[in-house]
Records
---
Amino acid sequence: MVSGWKRLSVGVIGGGIGGMSVAIALKRAGHDVVIYERSNFAGEVGASVSCAANGTRWLHEWKVDVAQGDPVVLKRLIQRDWKTGQPMSEYSLNDYEERWGHVYNMFHRQDMHAMLKNCALGEAGDGTPARLMVNHKCKDIDLQSNTITFENGATLYHDLIVGADGIGSVVRGALGIHPTRKIADQQCLHCNVMRDDAIKAGLVDYSQHEALEYWGGQEGKWDKIVLSPCNGGKLLSYYCFFARKQGDAINQTWGAEERSVEELLEHYPELDRQVFGHLGIGKEIQPWRLWIHEPYAYLNKQRACLLGDAGHPMMPHQSQGACMAIEDAAALGILFSAAYFDGNVEQALSIYNKVRLPRVTRVQSAAARAAYNINERIGFSNNKDLPFYKVEDTNNVLTIEEMNAYDMYRDIEEKLAAVKEVQYGDSYVCGLPVGMKLLNGIVVGASA
């Protein structure tokens, strides 16, 4: 235990996947955690959530009961021809667990949230169970006194405040960050298809493939269909992207009135008839408004910080949004643990910023490129021997090795050593082993 360690009162603003994750990480580190959620969790619409090995590893370290989430363990990524549906390329995940120590899980959002909530609020595991306060919408934060004011009139103090309140974050504004953003040239409709309904209709049972499957996304075009199975394969979650018309989607909100099947299908007259048939029996069709945020200059100020979409909103095309929030939570759990925290909250948050900001900014940038070029997507970015492979900059491609070989403990120790002006002895640079050759040709630690 580091000298000076003390138990903190932590206020987490936002009770979504990121908020529950950081509650787990910080309660396990020995702190008293209260989660403030603006809603009562009623009326959520379900969609799939991707959790690759770099996220799954923390679920296991935190002893989350992953089986409660009823995941599909992915075995491959498949890229299909837009019109025929024939496979164009595949990235196999057969050796994924062997290489990276953990599987690639695909969850239904409600199941994943319930799984994390049970772990955060439950008696099992290390630490005192976190507490959840619903119908507490954050109005403002006073950084001098570290008090949170809620719209219901309550004002509460915490030693540490974590803003996990999503893309419309109030905490972000309190930290003095005012995003430079623009609405994306691409928009999305999401729909759910029940596997049994597809089988009854005589359509392909995509759940048998245990895969993330893609139609389109090539040649700079915005049209793309992404299929992800979840609920143990019982539910097929479709993200349907298309070019935004001028003025569209400005006022769209997730969870509002459902859209019609006809509106969904009108965008895809030439789409493979099998997946077109799936979309034709889709339910819970919801718009997803997509915004592009320029990276923020920092993630922390005084004794408050940002996590997940509050700190680094990104396009969904690397399937890393949830994983980045989980990694954020893991970083805070480590930094405030007995092994690393010396009682200086502001210093710990400065290390959090140094560790997290470069990594999330890199994923943000790669996700924006993958919106119109599927070859930039982690996994497919390794298939560089294919005749149609083309990326903007081969030296800047985000690879599966960079994501999954990353050691956050080493990254934190390197950054802490620099701040404390002591020598760092491990052969790691920013969490990656020196000498490791990434498939984009970069050798970690090599001179430019």
Note: The CA atoms of residues 19 and 408 lie 19 Å apart.
---
Amino acid sequence: MSRVKPEELKQRLKQKAKEIGIDKIGIASADPFAGLKERLKESQAKGYASGFEKPDVDERVDPCLSLSRAKSIIAIALAYPSRLKNPPCSEEGAYRGIFCRASWGEDYHHVLKERLSILETALKEWVPDARTMIMVDTGALSDRAVAERAGIGWVGKNTALITDEFGSWVYLGEMITDVYLPPDESEKKGCGDCTRCLEACPTGALVQPGQLNAQSCLAFLTQTKNFLPDPYRNKIGNRLYGCDTCQIVCPKNRKVDFDHQQEFRPEPDKVKPLLKPLLSISNREFQEKYGKMAGSWRGKKPIQRNAILALAHFRDQSSVPDLTLLLFGDPRPVIRGTAAWALGKIGGNEAKEALLKARDRESDSDVLGEIEKGLKFFMNNGEAKSRG
């Protein structure tokens, strides 16, 4: 297909990657990921899948189902920062939420696709009839499985891809091609006896080394749009999007912080925003402020719901008027209901009176259920009178 020898072509690609600021690059074969197939089937059977993945397991493990006659996969990694410089602090009456590190700076999907597109252009200059397909996170293949096979790192017990240089603070992407490139050796390292991530997971979502129940993972739950299940409401803390706990405790991430990728440098006030302003932010304001972040992809509703839960977490009495406005005026049942639950947890006479009034006016059965949950907080504290 090309007059350039495969090894030379591989080195050209790696040199190009270095020139355009790609932190790591590796080449994997496009053979099916046989071992992964069984793990994915087990995850589906146990109900551990998030639902964001491609439902067809065969498509997720066989690159040739995405690009016919695929021969190689070019995997890349870009490092992102793990520490916030001069972070704003929560104060009484001015509490803040937090976006996970994977949502700091510009949406990584766009950045990685742009870098991969440059590699794609270069490859097609050297091999004019090359066929390619770029994937970043939302593609059929497992970015981590590809990166591990390509020698970029290894998949840890917390299911994150861990690199020697950057720990697990890396974004991953790949490009499938029908051009043969000599594959790199896969990583053989592992986590040893360390189980800190399993022990630290707030919800026990890491059911065993290398297996995640996404349905109970806070990173997934923060992205859902319906009511957050009751068992997790006291676990979410002030998380607005994502969860970094299993990465923070990982010894491989100790003292690891790289902010050389300018696109990923965070704005402190944006990634750790005040909570109360989020309750009344308009769609336009949300898109203007947060639209370029990865954490905005589900829209403002999950962020607002999580902000309400965070205010309940802080038991912020100053937010009671704001939550009351939502309870009586927001058109979305999830927001009204979550506000009702939060008012109950925060407590106080003003919150109780709001719930009692809302109980008489509300018509949505789900919201009424949340109002009763809110009032139950008072009953458990001996503050509410019997309805009889």
Note: The first helix runs from residue 6 to 19.
---
Amino acid sequence: MQQYHISRNTSFYAIGLSYKKADAEIRGHFSLTEDSKINLLNQAKTNGIESIIVTSTCNRTEIFGFAEHPFQLIQLLCENTNGTVEEFQKVAYVYKNKEAISHMFRVGSGLDSQILGDFEIISQLKTSARISKKQGLLNPFIERLINAVIQASKRIKTETNISSGATSVSFASVQYIMKRFENVSEKSILLFGTGKIGRNTCENLVKHTKNEHITLINRTKGKAEAIAGKFNLIVKDYANLQEEINASDILIVATGAQNPTIDKHIIQTKKELLILDLSIPKNVNDNVTELSNVTLIHLDDLSQITDETLENRKQHIPLAESIIDEVKTEFNSWLETGKFAPTIKALKSKLQDFKNAELDTQRKKIAGFNEEQAELISNKLIQKITNHFAHHLKDDAFSTNESPELIQKVFQLEPTKHV
């Protein structure tokens, strides 16, 4: 099937940018906060977009949705971020219909992740779909597609070893620290920011470094305390940030701030300090590299650090792709079947009209007419007829492009819209 029309003149698009062409700074320009995502969805609804989901992670920002032209979606993105259309055009991608579907499968299955096999994106897609549904912006097509992608993701995770080794930025950062320091368990580590990446990094630090000198700081202290309690860690006030940085050997920054929160002026220590910036937009000012004792590593650097399991994971790509093809075929089969639903619905409605008119006639002509029995028999006949036509349309042996038009012509049905 070449086109996926939910309503006349619209197609399914995937527009966005990722680590492949856009560096951390550019990705930061197009990063969406939770509030800006809601604003974008509200604007989409106002603009007549009927179904759309939005994702924004550390390595990509994407919109999947139906539009007459992809620029409608690009404009929504640019108007709700700090990015411009000119910037977008230089690094972006636009996929339509079949290519957009394939792209979502690759993204959700970890094959398009910055670190191969990173499945964290699938939870982002689930959350995005849930938010869109709450806003009334999730049609049956995208909802079914998301569920198919989730199914493929689960199968790939359980049936292949593509997720062995470091498969997330949070684990890759801990792996980097462990390779850099022999005595990492004795180093003072400060984690600033306890969002999703911060929480995952914290969990990996505790699990793999056996370090008992980990301190957490978050603007909202309660969030840090909730995580610290789980792992028996130290929590300090945001007001103590500079003091704690200067007492640390390793600083991990994973905040959701839109501007840098760390720069060279708050670093007063002379001892060696490793800073890992896991944030998009960047939360550590590049000017910290002017300090000879500071080493700055960004998440884009971490993704390029390969480990011994990477080649092994690459070997599982063909199997993962075959799983995607299998699930995608099932989705396309549903799609092909679904496009006939309006024709069947219109046929059933027409037959109901015939029935009602005939019952009305017989009611007037026959004394003691058994209306209940006639209604029962008529409905069963209608169901059998519509089922027969439905099976005909689903049968590959017939020309399914011509059949709906023939049914519409014979029964004088209104032209229907594809689903």
Note: The CA atoms of residues 363 and 370 lie 8 Å apart.
---
Amino acid sequence: MRDPLSVLTDAFTSFLFGKVETTRLPVRTSTGQAQAVYLPTAAPGLGDSGVIIGREVYSGKGYIYDPFQLYGQQLPAPHWLVLGESGNGKSALEKTYVLRQLRFRDRQVVVLDAQGEDGVGEWNLIAQELGITPIRLDPMAALDMGIRLNPLDPAITTTGQLALLRTIIEVAMGHGLDERSGFALKVAHAYVNETIVDRQPVLTDIVEQLRHPEPESAEAMNVAIDDVRAWGLDVALVLDRLVDGDLRGMFDGPTTVGIDLDAPLIVFDLSHIDRNSIAMPILMAIVGVWLEHTWIRPDRKKRIFLVEEAWHIINSPFVAQLFQRLLKFGRRLGLSFVAVVHHLSDVVDGAAAKEAAAILKMASTRTIYAQKADEARATGRVLGLPRWAVEIIPTLTPGIAVWDVNGNVQVVKHLVTETERPLVFTDRAMTESSADLEDDALRAAELEAEERAAAFVEHHLGDSESTVA
């Protein structure tokens, strides 16, 4: 029985303001039962045109990505950074991505393959399947008429040749050239290009000219010839390493005839080069500039330049500056640069922090596989990832990664077809898992991802009983 005063008050309120909303008693239930109250939602995708990567973990939607389709709409730049520790699926992602891109007739890919076993690079199986012979850069093979790339190839502009020579020397010396050494190199290069016209100039010609400079070069600057010779001595010693040192044979002769730059896939096999030596950044600088002047053309083709062990580029200020220019230039001609790095700390804390930041800024797409918690937090700070993404990175299982496409962040499971499986899951002892282990891990990851999605919902709705009015 209601209080008469309450009845009178309700009647008076209804008369003034209209009918009062009915009040219902709350119903106590659990989150498991009340989850139907919350309508299913999913983040918007990247469109339906491009390369299929896999599916988005929490919604189950197909995940399609193509920098050439997204460029100018959702992407300010087509470049891509792939991060993660070994054994989590980076290699499988790169290979299937390239194979699927090559299904389009206007695509062309160059891969710098810095890993390998049994005397061949990691991309050897894919190259064989496509009927392509990798360009194997090997100091020992080069001595026996192997592959050579000439830094003084006439296909490279005179300005490009001089910039490349400077970069080689600066990488080897670990510091920039001073004005006097730079002058000695410039006059030697100019003299060689002017006087050698019946063949390709080679590095031996530059070394010889640095050791025995022409009097005219000294007279032009009103200095003694012995001074010019002294200024160029250190430069000559560095270049001599490419001519008669541990890198001899690969760069001290005319460019090998028959390198097919029109093939859909071009693989530079660098697996015979010591990855921890100074040779690797020098090699990447030479290959990068050589490709810039011989491969990238205004022919409306969409090109992908994929670099394994990319910290050799980003961690060297001089090489990074060359590639930074390549990225800016290549964007106008349809170039997508894909850099594969194990740890972001390899580059952001290195000697080329400024250049690394510039290159990372150009990468509008970032894919992050499993990392340790400390590394994940550091990666999140540098890349500006949302907190929830940083928290799940250490828990990711093989084949699953966080994708950040210009701020569109999703968790994606990479899917591999049965046709692709024997090509991408090579049997690596210390780098990537074998096919069987990867297969089992991916199946387990799918189940675990579904459980994690449910746990994610539980975490945000609360584990205890909820009160629903």
Note: Residues 435-461 form the longest helix (27 residues).
